[in-house]
Amino acid sequence: NDVADIERLNQIAPLHNPATLKWLRAAQTVFGQRVPQIAVFDTAFFAELPEVAAGYALPPDITEGHGIRRVGFHGLAHAWMWRRWQQLVADHGANTRLISLQLGGGCSMAAIVDGQPLDTSMGFSPLEGLVMATRCGDLDPNVVLHLLRDGGMSMQAVSRLLNGGSGLFGMAGSADLRDLLSRTDAPARQAVDLYCYRIRKYVGAFFAVLGGADAIVFGGGVGENAAEIRRRTMAGMAWCGIRLDHKANEAATGVEARISANDSTVQVWVVPVDEGAVLASEAADLLGPRRDDEARGDSS
After folding, report:
1. Are the beta carbons of 246 and 231 closer than 8 angstroms?
2. pLDDT averaged over consecutive 10-residue blocks of the chain (300 residues)?
3. C-alpha 127: how far from its chain's center?
4. What's the rounded Cα separation, in Å, for the pair 91 and 21?
5. Are strands 107-113 and 116-120 parallel, antiparallel or unpaired?
6. Which residues have a Cβ under 8 Å from the Cβ of 247 and sit 6 or more positions away?
7. Run of H or E residues at 224
8. Is the dihedral of CA 183, 186, 192, 193 positive or negative?
């Protein structure tokens, strides 16, 4: 059944799927089988990634035989940032190129043209890409082989390390950027530097994918609240037209705001993410009009 299908994906998203299944089963117990439950997948937004962005350089019998491709995650957040930015900027025009940054416990970026993602930083699982709270992000696969072969670690131990014992926490003993930014020790400094460097590196890569960008949007707990992280990730980017208004950036904490300077050719925004609104919209589209609305002839 559908629940079993989701459960089979636990190993790909071990930090989220098991917890989600607990809530799903709890809701079934409380509401019974007659009340429909709708699963809205974070990967759906990236379902039509271009083949060149979705593929890995592996033989077809491996990729097709085992369903290996880059699927992306945080699609709800990236979809919201795109939609909300369109609403905020009335004169955005056609062929708009947006780089969205979802920075929280998990971190990802997307390169989007007119609502269609062309690339994203997460891949087959949420491990690929940026440095995160407890995930390592981009890693040479031979590191895993080395740990298994020469490090005496089990597959389960390596999985726990990469998903829950790496990233900011693994480097500096804390997954809280507020704590790390307040510290002066070398591990904290190195962790923050790598975190920001990896974001800036992907921004440059996505400029190449999009052929430039019209806007960059920050969302997620870190993206919406950490002005210092936004400042560091956008530092030295004047070459591509990004200039922050530092007063606006400092003032933007958990609120919608444009934080780029007037002479910045690339707009930079903070857009608090409302994944719940995307979930509700997707569910409403699937369920269609309520029966009582149909009975009243209400087509609103």
Report:
1. yes
2. 72 74 82 81 92 97 96 95 92 88 98 97 96 98 97 96 97 98 98 98 98 97 98 96 98 97 97 90 78 45
3. 11
4. 42
5. antiparallel
6. none
7. helix 220-225
8. positive
The SS3 of residue 11 is coil
Alpha-carbon distance of 249 to 261, in angstroms, equals 10
What is the phi/psi pair of residue 112, to 5°?
A: -125, 135
Are 132 and 159 contacting, i.e. CB atoms less than 8 angstroms apart? no
8 A C-beta contact, residue 225 and residue 249: no
What type of residue sits at position 192?
A: V
Q: Which of 2, 5, 42, 285 is catalytic?
A: 42
The separation between the first and the last C-alpha atoms of the chain, rounded to the nearest angstrom, is 35
Residue 119 is among the residues annotated as catalytic for this protein: no
Dist. CA 81–CA 251, nearest whole Å: 20
Strands (E), 51-96: none
Pairing of strands 107-113, 97-103: antiparallel
Q: Is 194 exposed, middle or buried (0-12, 13-18, 19+ CB in 10 A)?
A: middle
Q: Which helix (H) or strand (E) holds 286?
A: helix 275-287
The answer to whether the CB of 45 falls within 8 A of the CB of 95 is no
Segment (H or E) for 210: helix 186-210
Element (H, E) at 157: helix 155-164
Q: How many residues does the chain have?
A: 300
- pLDDT of res. 185: 98
Amino acid identity at 273: V
Amino acid 290: pLDDT: 55
The pLDDT, as a whole number, for residue 91 is: 79
pLDDT of residue 270: 98
Identify which of 50, 169, 47 has the alpha carbon closest to the alpha carbon of residue 106.
169
Rounded CA-CA distance 38/60 in Å is 33
